[in-house]
Amino acid sequence: MRSLTLYRRLLSIQLRSQMQYRMSFLMDVLSTGLLNGTYFFSVALVLNRFGGVVGWTVGEVAFLVGVAEIAFGLTDMIFSGFDADTFSPMVRQGQFDQLLLRPVNITVQVLGSSFLLRRLGRILQGVIILAYGLWMTPVVWTAAKSLYLPVVIASQVVLMGAIFIFGTTLTFWTIERVEAVNILTYGGVEMMGYPMDIYSKGMRRFFTYVVPFIFMNYYPALYFLGKTDPFGFPAAAPFFAPLVAAAGMGLALWFWRWGITHYQSTGS
Amino acid sequence: MRFFWEVVRRAFRQETTYRLAMWAGLATNLFFGLVRAALLTALLPAGAAVNGMDAAASVTYVALTQAMIAFLRIFGMTDVSKSVYSGQVAMDLLKPTHLYTLWMGRELGKAGFNLWGRGVIFMALFALFHPLVFPGSLGQAGWFLVSLGLSWLVSFSWNFLVNLAAFWTPDARGVARMGFLISGVLSGFYMPLQLMPEWFTRLCYWTPFPSLINTPVEIYLGIVPAGELGVRLGLQLVWFLVLAAASQAVVRLGIRKLVIQGG
Q: What are the TM regions of this chain, as residue ranges (chain A) (predicted)?
């Protein structure tokens, strides 16, 4: 409870300071939104020429991209304190030691240390792409589907957040940010934006058994869009997303706590 | 001239110190390359070709564009604008060379290293996953190198020009991002222009951006329409001259605005 009030406090400080320069803030929101939007625009132009890819229409691909973009935008906003880019200087310059000295939950402090409101741009862009996808696909939205969509987005946020926390914990030892983690985060969204059918067997196996992204976006999309599963997974596969997210977050938090107990300051 | 090459040499040596960053960058480029190659090969099944782009050519297109990221600094650079904000630019203006040429030297040194470290090595790594095609003749390879050199000049001039916004606005980063936003689509970096609708490709050719990426890749793959090779190279040269001249003019205006705080 105390942690929650503290988090709200830290959050309001963040928001107030970021809204100080309104014009610059709006520019930032707009440009980050457009940046990801233009990429989808390019892909959509090409997909239109071919009438889709591996049996997926442009609208259906837009659905995949839209959901993944909204979720990643949210992750990037909420978990930006755990973004290795902002966190690794804290380890390097010893500011993390200061946080450890305070008698408050360390996870809450790091989580509240940054909240990038300008990521709204990416989220907004995802919403537009998703809306376009929904408009282009004749899907019957049952109550169950409408309730499950927010759960899928939340699950993606939690799993991506877990990868952020994992990457941040690594910086205790590496001091520098570990770029390979970016492959899973930024690369992961891009990868999840296409139907899994296009990837080679090796890549698909990796994203099924090692980092199970396949259950986060692709399988839920099969359920929402009423498409048949070409890989023969159990019929419950579209509903694995929350379980994978919970397991991933559990693992990441365990690693984070273990990392803190083994943390040795750089001495700066 | 001796000063210029000294700057190049130092920038090259400085870049060689970041070996770990080089491998990390290579891994990231490789992953994104594999994802993009998967999409294009799924679109172009064996035997299918659009405007000379078949599956093998499109995979090679992906490899080349990913290999050019660090060499051309496709995602944009902010070094010049940072030097304006920090005041370093005042020192640079005292040096016995023009600001544009000075930065060209610095960037050329970096690019020289990245052509090898992030370019050639990347192509070799990518070839482990996908078979790549090579230029059909020595002449084609030669014209590719000429075109690649011109792309570098266009890319550098464009990046430099965008950075000059720092003389007027405190948010040059946003301007740089806008710059990449336009160039990413229009240059053929995201998707080959050959696969875009015709009206869109024609629109792109009114801008300098195809000269940045699409032209050298086209020449490498040997899919330039017959008789167009000279036109494409000429266009690259013209855009380089235009952007370079614009940079000079803007620098002159910017310096008048510049106020350096003493200390």
A: 21-41, 61-82, 123-141, 147-173, 206-225, 231-256
Q: What is the ipTM of this complex?
A: 0.87
Provide the residue range defining the domain that includes B155: 2-257
B 190-209 residues inside an 8 A Cβ radius of A:
190-191, 195-197, 200
CB contact under 8 A, A39 and B21: no
- Is B48 an interface residue toward A (CB < 8 Å)? no
B38: contact with A, CB 8 A cutoff = yes
Residues of A within 8 A of B193 (CB-CB) are none
- Quick check: pTM over 0.95? no
* Sign of the Cα pseudo-torsion (A97, A98, A99, A104, in order): positive
Report if residue B262 sits inside a domain: no
Digit-coded pLDDT (tens) for A25-78: 887 788 878 877 888 999 999 999 898 999 999 999 999 999 999 999 999 999
Give the DSSP letter string of B95-121.
SSS-HHHHHHHHHHHHHHHHIIIIIIH
Cα distances from B105 to residues B2, B116, B254, in angstroms, run: 11, 17, 21
Any domain includes B186:
yes
Q: Does B255 touch chain A (CB under 8 A)?
A: no
A187:B184 CB<8 A: no
Residue carrying structure tokens 């005292």: B94
* pLDDT, mean of residues B185-198: 92
- Structural domain spans, chain A: 2-261
Q: Which residues of A touch B180 (CB under 8 A)?
A: 35
Q: Which chain A residue is nearest to residue B181, measuring alpha carbons?
A: A35
Q: How far is it, in rounded angstroms, from Cα B58 to Cα B143?
A: 20
- Residue in chain A closest to B20 (alpha carbons) equals A179
* Contact (Cβ atoms closer than 8 angstroms) between residue B125 and residue B118: no
Query: Which structure tokens are listed for A79?
Result: 């978990």
State the total domains in chain B.
Answer: 1
